[in-house]
Structure of 2-keto-myo-inositol dehydratase:
Amino acid sequence: MTSMPSSPLSRVRVGSAPDSWGVWFPDDPAQVPWRRFLDEVAAAGYEWIELGPYGYLPTDPVVLAEETARRGLKVSAGTVFTGLHHGPAVWEKTWEHVSSVAELTRATGARHLVVIPSFWRDDRTGAVLEPAELTPAQWRDLTGQTERLGHEVRERYGLTIVVHPHADTHIDTEAHVTRFLDATDPALVSLCLDTGHYAYCGGDSVELIETYGERLGYLHLKQVDPEILARVRAEGTPFGPAVARGVMCEPPAGVPALGPVLEAAARLDTDLFAIVEQDMYPCAPDRPLPIARRTRAFLRSCGV
């Protein structure tokens, strides 16, 4: 009796992240305690998690390994925040942050480091910190220093960096994302496509996967509410306050449709993490778990 061939979607490993529990900061009274997050993400049916902001989960690798293993959880990636468009002057400070996260990430057995560019306006207050557009020299610094980061992280820690386009950063719109990808070495820099952020900034995730599929190293699954998005874009609302207004919504209520995104990713026929991230800062502590359970059930209906 011959066995049926496995679906390409079987190579997509689904998880969730502290972000889906309203966690944006290492320590904040508005956030759920880390033990509760671990308990609930396991209860929702997820096997994979991200570390979230460094310091939220235990930074002692022995403690972290014990706490995740007894809940049947494994770590897919760590996350770092960078301002590499400022050039070599910020390298040492950046590396100090990156090395701490990379060391913990490696200790968990994860192989990816999600790299988020710095915000040009504050995600709490909306205060403008610098111009929204980079100069040509800043673009050269951003791409060159990111390649350096990719090389150092790979050589020292054996990890792959996946750069995460993000609202209110300099890598956000289709034009900025494609400019960044075209200017960086595929051997050193991969893409973490966040479907919600890309839609928030006007991009088409399926088109990006079909055009730059060889660069895709990681997925964040997220949707935006198109009606709220239209209002916050028209009003120029910063990303943080937009999240507080519910711009990121529970699937399948928003855009983009996640089924076609997953199918496009599956056609690449490569192992891929797809981590659910529904930005909900701040949120009531009892809100995330029911959403997480429904989202996991929805993703199973999509074949993953």
Observations:
- The radius of gyration is 18 Å.
- The chain has eleven helices and ten strands.
